[in-house]
Amino acid sequence: MLLMVQPIVDCLKAIKTESSHVVLLTPQGETFTQKKARSFVHFDHLILICGHYEGFDERIRDYVDEEVSIGDFVLTGGEIAAMTISDALIRLLDGVITKQSHEDDSFENGLLEYPQYTRPIEYDGKRVPDVLLSGHHENIRKWRLKESLRKTYLKRPDLLEKKQLNAEEEHLLIEIQSENQK
Ligand code: 4G4
To answer: The CATH number of the domain where 177 resides is what?
Structure first.
């Protein structure tokens, strides 16, 4: 069963304004990323159309601005995709979380997040790295950058290929690669 074009276009006509951006959620769309989330927050009015059953009448595509997918998998409906996108956008709105938190997010700097610790200093024989207890901000910054690079190198090498590394990052990556050969 497919969603018909006429009821959806009627609905669009009823709610669309000059500032609306109309997005169709489908597995065939362009993949939603943090970069896309940052571009979507600039729209004053976002309309997310959720398909169900087996999708839409093909002609719907002429009435939307773009098609987006949240990943290469199939859902029974686009609603959870719409919630995913909403959540990613809402947390970028002013006042939801601090600017520093965004800058630290994975994908904002193109790297995975560095390891983080809470108390106690030792749990089940596992210690918080000494450098983090040292209070030496420059060493901590460098350690975090290196561990971000290490995680990305080991888990998401595809992200490193896309990222332009500066001299410090290049140097740290070479260290990591030689450490991993031992
Ligand atoms: C449009 C066409 C989005 C919408 C077909 C929607 C996955 C995503 C749907 C369908 C969705 C995604 C029923 C397959 C609704 N599934 N990856 N399902 N299907 O963003």
So the answer is: 1.10.1270.20
Burial (CB count <10 Å: 0-12, 13-18, 19+), residue 111 = buried
Q: In the structure, which protein residues have their CB atom closer than 6 angstroms to any atom of ligand 1? A: 25-27, 51, 54-56, 69-71, 73-75, 77-78, 81
The string of pLDDT tens digits covering residues 43-83 is 999 999 999 889 999 999 999 999 999 999 999 999 999 99
Model pTM above 0.90? yes
Please determine, for residue 128, whether its predicted confidence score (pLDDT) is greater than 90: yes
Residue 49: its H or E element: strand 45-50
Catalytic residue ranges: 27, 54, 91, 105
Q: 7 and 80, same structural domain?
A: yes
Please give the structure tokens belonging to residue 178.
């030689």
Please give the tally of structural domains in the chain. 2
Instruction: Tell how far the Cα of 13 is from the centroid of ligand 1, in angstroms.
Output: 23
Tell me how far the alpha carbon of residue 68 lies from the centroid of ligand 1, in angstroms.
Answer: 10
**78-97 average pLDDT score:** 96
Domain that holds residue 7: 2-90
